[in-house]
């Protein structure tokens, strides 16, 4: 597995993963185009030519927000999510940003456990954040 920058040509491979994992709450191709146009930091995990997952980060002077981390089902439980998160946190460190935040579905316990191993702690709740399911999001934060 290798991690590299997410480029426009990866969008076609990302869309089916979004649909499978997130259904009606999936991001559209236009949303990914917008993220890339904004020059946000996005990476993909590849096994040969197969896209295993992707992750994105939006940075500001004082904080960074993990936009998404997604791993196709066949790539799960193989360290792909961990590698993607480490790539994002590496960019945070490179930029000298001291605070990283993210939202995660309250019912996504595996992701919450992963984030906790990287010192993310719950700091808030966004009720009905994910639509149309109306699922709450746990806000987690990491310092340093």
From TrEMBL:
Record's GO cellular component terms: ribosome
Reactions this protein catalyses: N-terminal L-alanyl-[ribosomal protein bS18] + acetyl-CoA = N-terminal N(alpha)-acetyl-L-alanyl-[ribosomal protein bS18] + CoA + H(+)
Xref: SUPFAM superfamilies: Acyl-CoA N-acyltransferases (Nat)
Localization annotation: Cytoplasm
EC number from the UniProt entry: 2.3.1.266
Keywords, comma-separated and alphabetical: Acyltransferase, Cytoplasm, Ribonucleoprotein, Ribosomal protein, Transferase
All residue ranges annotated as the N-acetyltransferase domain in the record: 1-144
InterPro entries tied to this protein: AcTrfase_RimI/Ard1 (IPR006464), Acyl_CoA_acyltransferase (IPR016181), Bact_Acetyltransf (IPR050832), GNAT_dom (IPR000182)
Superkingdom of origin: Bacteria
NCBIfam families registered for this protein in UniProt: rimI (TIGR01575)
Family the entry assigns: Belongs to the acetyltransferase family. RimI subfamily.
Function: Acetylates the N-terminal alanine of ribosomal protein bS18.
Entry protein name: [Ribosomal protein bS18]-alanine N-acetyltransferase
């Amino acid at each position: 597995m290798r991690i590299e920058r997410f480029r426009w040509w990866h969008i076609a491979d990302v869309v089916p993963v979004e649909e499978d994992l997130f259904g009606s709450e999936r991001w559209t191709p236009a949303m990914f185009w917008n993220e890339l146009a904004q020059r946000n930091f996005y990476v993909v995990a590849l096994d040969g030519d197969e896209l295993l997952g992707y992750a994105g980060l939006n940075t500001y002077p004082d904080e960074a927000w993990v936009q998404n981390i997604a791993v196709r089902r066949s790539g799960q439980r193989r360290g792909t999510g961990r590698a993607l998160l480490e790539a994002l946190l590496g960019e945070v460190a490179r930029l000298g940003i001291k605070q990283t935040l993210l939202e995660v579905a309250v019912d996504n316990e595996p992701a919450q456990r992963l984030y906790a191993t990287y010192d993310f702690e719950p700091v808030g709740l966004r009720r009905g954040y994910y639509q149309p399911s109306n699922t709450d999001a746990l806000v987690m934060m990491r310092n340093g």
